[in-house]
């Protein structure tokens, strides 16, 4: 588990492609590796990767076919900057929100506009995850925990403050860039718990006030 609070910006040092998947070597920059061991997890642009080797101030990780098909890691290039975060310790402060490092879909940056000292970013998300994204809710973008300002169908807006722009790769975003998205884990599990086994096999079902009441989450008088 992670928090979506980026600890350092690293750099891709090497990419090895083999039999459809790949290995990457990441320079960790200011990330403290003193408490990292082989087998530990490091979120790399929001993707949970397992450390397979620790040569100095860098790490190697394998990237599976499944990860390549569901994230932007397949498009990484040597020299590219990446957001890094070590796995959450149970005694650590939860500064962002609970993040699993399992990407739900790839979004596209549509617009970038300065707003006072902040930057307003518009992103299109895959339609199948839009139901999990709500105004004032949380979303993880390339490993960064952010608050959703507005949502319109499959498009949402973010307001990125100067500190986040400075400490992450968001300052490098350009229109058309593809980004890793992970929705709020609580929203995903809430839907799974509410749906019956038969319903969970369906791609979509609306969660209405009536539905919540039928399953004991609301008093019926609240929606009559």
Shape: globular
As laid out across the biggest beta sheet, the strand order is: 1-2-5-4-3-6
How many discrete structural domains? 3
Any idea what the CATH architecture of the largest domain is? Beta Barrel
> Structural class of the helix and strand makeup?
mainly beta
How many strands? 12
Counted by DSSP, the helix tally is 5
CATH class of the largest domain: Mainly Beta
The CATH topology of the largest domain is given as: Elongation Factor Tu (Ef-tu), domain 3
How much beta, percentage-wise?
35-45%
Tell me the distance between the termini: 40 Å
Poorly predicted parts: 220-224
Q: What is the arithmetic mean of pLDDT?
A: 89
Q: What percentage of residues falls in helices of 4 or more residues?
A: 10-25%
Could you give a short description of this structure?
The chain is mainly beta. The chain is 14% helix and 38% strand.
Topology of helices and strands:
Layout: E1 8-18, E2 21-27, E3 41-44, E4 47-53, E5 58-63, H1 65-70, E6 81-86, E7 105-115, E8 118-124, E9 138-141, E10 144-152, E11 155-160, H2 162-167, E12 178-183, H3 185-194, H4 197-200, H5 209-214
Antiparallel strand pairs: 1-2, 1-6, 2-5, 3-4, 3-6, 4-5, 7-8, 7-12, 8-11, 9-10, 9-12, 10-11
Task: Give structural notes.
The longest helix has 10 residues, at 185-194. It is globular and about 55 Å long. Helix content is 14%, strand content 38%. It has helices spanning 65-70, 162-167, 185-194, 197-200, 209-214; strands at 8-18, 21-27, 41-44, 47-53, 58-63, 81-86, 105-115, 118-124, 138-141, 144-152, 155-160, 178-183. The chain contains 5 helices and 12 strands. It has 224 residues and is mostly beta strands. The protein folds into 3 domains: 8-86, Elongation Factor Tu (Ef-tu), domain 3 (Beta Barrel), CATH 2.40.30; 105-184, Elongation Factor Tu (Ef-tu), domain 3, CATH 2.40.30; 187-222, no CATH class. A 6-stranded antiparallel β-barrel has the order 1-2-5-4-3-6.
């Amino acid at each position: 588990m992670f928090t979506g609070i980026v600890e350092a910006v690293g750099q891709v040092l090497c990419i090895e492609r083999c039999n459809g998947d790949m290995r990457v070597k990441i320079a960790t920059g200011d990330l403290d590796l003193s408490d990292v061991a082989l087998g530990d997890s490091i979120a790399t642009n929001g993707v949970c990767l397992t450390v397979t080797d620790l040569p100095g101030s860098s790490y190697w990780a394998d990237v599976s076919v499944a990860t390549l098909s569901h994230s932007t890691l397949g498009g990484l290039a040597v020299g590219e900057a990446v957001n890094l975060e070590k796995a959450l310790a149970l005694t650590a402060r939860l500064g962002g929100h609970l993040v699993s490092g399992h990407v739900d879909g790839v979004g596209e940056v549509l617009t970038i506009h300065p707003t006072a000292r902040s930057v307003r970013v518009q992103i299109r998300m895959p339609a199948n995850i839009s139901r999990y994204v709500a105004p004032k809710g949380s979303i993880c973008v390339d490993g960064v925990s952010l608050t959703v300002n507005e949502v319109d169908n499959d498009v949402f807006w973010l307001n990125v403050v100067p500190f986040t722009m400075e400490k992450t790769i968001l300052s490098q975003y350009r229109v058309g860039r593809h980004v890793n998205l992970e929705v709020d884990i609580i929203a995903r599990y809430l839907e799974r718990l509410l749906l019956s086994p038969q319903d969970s096999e369906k791609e979509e079902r609306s969660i209405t006030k009536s539905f919540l009441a039928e399953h004991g989450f609301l008093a019926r008088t609240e929606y009559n």
